[in-house]
## 1
Amino acid sequence: MTGLGIALDLGTSGFRGQAIELDAEGKILCTAVTTRHPFPGANVIDHLHFALEVGIEKANQVIVHAVNRVLDTLPVEKDRVVRLAVCGNPIQLSLFQGIEIRDLAYAGKRKLEALGVIPPKRNARIIKAVEIPGLALPAHTEILIPPAVRHEIGADALAMMIRTRMLEKDEISIVTDYGTNAEMALIVGGVVYTGSTAAGPALEGQQIGDGILALPGAISDVVFEPDGVAGDAARGCLTGDDRPLKGRLKTFVLDHEMMPRPGDTVYPDSGRVSQTGQLRAVGITGTGVVALLSQGFKARLIRIPRINTLDMEIHLPDELKFTEKDLLEAGKAIGAVRAGHVTLCNEAGIRLEDIEVAYMCGASGTYVDALKALDVGMVPARVKKICQVGNTSLAMAGEVVKDVDNLWKMQDIADNLRQNHCMFAESKVFEKVYILELSYWTEGMPRQQYQKFLTKYGLPTLVEPGEAPEVIKTVERDIPDLGVMGLKIIPDIGEKKTIAFEGCLGDAKCVLECPEKALQMKRRGDIYEITLDMALCNGVACRRCERACETKGFDLLSLLTC
């Protein structure tokens, strides 16, 4: 009997794993995905903050516990697993291994020296499962760790450059992984300019009121159909009137094979069903949000920063809705991506319109209508070609687990990459552009005024979209092959922590104040116990629960580490 390999993508929004036969065929057996990340918080900065607060050892235990849940969900015999290949950003991979992360948190050599931090080498390596305490695999199982390129640009970013083959082509191109931590790389004249921004999870459906990840039941696309006009004829039908157009929203919902099927068609001001679809919706994912923005602009349902309906909400099927708060969250995420694109172009000394090809990675980059993403500013406006390439991180882990030589090939590419990394957190250019993006999305700054500021700063300016680019969809799903046993979903990846705080009044103000409904309170005799779902918690930077406590006895850190 042949051995098994596990490919594992430790993403910022969730984990994805696949079991693969390690024979000549390399057949994928099954896929398991989590609906969230096990850490509190919504982005990589929150995750880093949590790990620093609770310590590397505790953070490692949380990661390993979640990985074990993925392994347990894959219906295969663990004693057959001989290799596990993992991919992700440097923070996730470092915490999985239980190694130093403070060099990723603090900038400046002097600061690190003052803390006594010796940055670890994040080269490709092979270790045994026994070296990761608590990992539920045979002790002799090989764990294949891919290399980072530099600092925050890790194996996941390297994977998207390799899988798109952009390094082999003579073109000015940009690749973006549209996730919670949006990695991007621009190649100009054989030199790669990289960056990474904590865009937040809105582009993956999180921090949206009725948002969910790309899972069965998620609204993944929306088309506005004006009265008397159907389908793509809705494009370009605006007049000079400020009132919203009368019409309907046609939705598309992911089925259990992660393929979009027609959902209900509804009137956006009420949610009344105009035409019944094939599937019910349970939420809206990031691609649906992007589509809703695109169509909302065209239909004048959205006038940034407002929603142009009587109740200031856009109504979707099955009592779902999109609010002005959701608009703000989506705008901040899109703004971070566009600010990153402008910053990298400035680093490379080119204009945005010089970019010829845009590669879109990740679930959001796969399921989104590429032209709608172009409409809202997620893709540079004048590209000639858009290629949607799926989850490159999981795909790369799969290639490595099937052939270990691919691990060392990744190291060779990382060593020889002519690369310039821009730390967006320290970049004055990124700061200026992102402030303009916030002004645009949150205050309705006119685009003309935005352009004037870019010109004043001597930065690449935005241009209006030209002729529609060619769109090449290389995969139908972000995970093209779910395996012969299909997809398994893990909705409850978060560890539950319970504690009784001394002096608790039992008024549940902390529970009511939590924006993510991560807390529950239960009375046991004269004691009130608080239970926290770590994966739902907004993170240690939030602490609204602590501030709501009248007696000041609530201690979030004690709850997280109990």
## 2
Amino acid sequence: MPMEPSGYADGFARESLPDESDWPDFRFATDAVQYPARLNAAAELLDGALEKGWGERVAVYSDGRTLTYSELNTEVNRLAQVLVDDLGLVSGERVLIHGPNSIDMMIAWYGVLKAGGIAAMTMPLLREPEITKIVQKVGIRLALCAAPLKEAVENSKSNGSGLKRIALMGSGEEVARLMAEKSGTFTACDTAADDIALLAFTSGTTGEPKACAHFHRSVLVMADTFGALLDPQAGDIYAGTPPFAFTFGLGAFVVFPARAGIAVALAPKPGFEALCETIQRFGVTHTFTAPTGYRAMLALLPQCDLSSLKCGVSAGEHLPEASWRAWKDATGIGLIDGIGATEMIHIFISATGKNIRPGATGKAVPGYEARVIGDDGESVADGEIGKLAVRGPTGCLYLSDARQETYVQNGWNITGDLYRRDPDGYFWYVSRADDLIVASGYNIAGPEVEQALLMHDAVAECAVVGQSCAERGTIVSAHVVLKQPLLAGDEMAMELQNFVKLTIAPYKYPRAVHFIEALPKTQTGKIQRFRLRG
């Protein structure tokens, strides 16, 4: 469909989109994803909350302060005024937002969108070289930065990245002082529904970052598709670990709550102890984290009261059945698994409630279509392994990146995951395409071996990859974190190998077992298997 005339003066981002012949086939098949041609997502969420009578509801809890939706909207309007009047924001300009999950960063994201900017949020642990790549890729002039994390951003500016202005956020900092002088009244920029609202950067740690563009309407789509599946109710409170810069976290903690008029509770620092303390303190009902997070929280259950929880969402990595059952046994809660992608903005396959099948990811979220395809692009038979292809109201749009042609093929988004579908329409994760281990002529999926290992009582965490072997070409290699590290040794390795042989097909057992203190992970909790391959 033709794009609506842009509301932006700076056309860089729209002009950097792929040729429309390389776009995914956007589908708006349900009433839930029908939007007007002119739409500002921040105004729709915040001004919309006030119009629905939710102004006095709590929007966000944190250690330092609590804001209602009315108070949050006023703060966002003040920042939007600062951006336009004091920092010279031009509509369509990309703005770097760098900081931890906090009220300040939430205000920054909303304020940038309301003022007509494009939010480019970055993971709080990024260093100067990583920030510089992002700044240069999308031409960023202005940065809003949490004061404690200013060093990496200032170093990027000093090293000639193209950053011209860094405005620090926090109590007593420049932005707060400027905001204090503003009225708190602001009319949102007249953006098109298909103007770009945010640039999300892939969480991989090697190579050049990919800037995934998402429209204002796409921000609402994630709330009106997967977010709606969670059936949010007045009084619900969300919390979890993924950063706002990770669209899993942006949806869960910024967009979903505002769309439903409920609250988010922000932990004062990263980590699962802090998350458990936050759940207990604020009576959190829904938690969001990666599978490794739920396993870590299991160990903390004896010392924390998590009885307020009624729902848990797992994403970022496949949720093994063993982890699902362990959490269910301990809490009575059946975790909601889901697969999403930065390119798709949020989760597009999942299942909730009685529709959950432990070990399966689920079915396509209403509004999306998914299928399993072969190398020829055609659907394979149920039960056969192939590449996951998906399409719907969101999709991959890389800015100025040849990798667009790999991700989008014939209108479908090819996620890089191997799946099989059962006759009931449930999708079962097999592996990432590069996690499939070919050993002695057998195709072995690393996550299947991991699932078997996790069923052993001694195993806390593990990751399975292919390891080069002169004799066999490739062997299955397990990297294992034990609950009691002192048990590591040849005897335990043999015990785990025999356990796997008895649990799944014997040829899949790990011929090499390495005991390690901790698995390498990204900031979003994904295991970095490439660091274990050898």
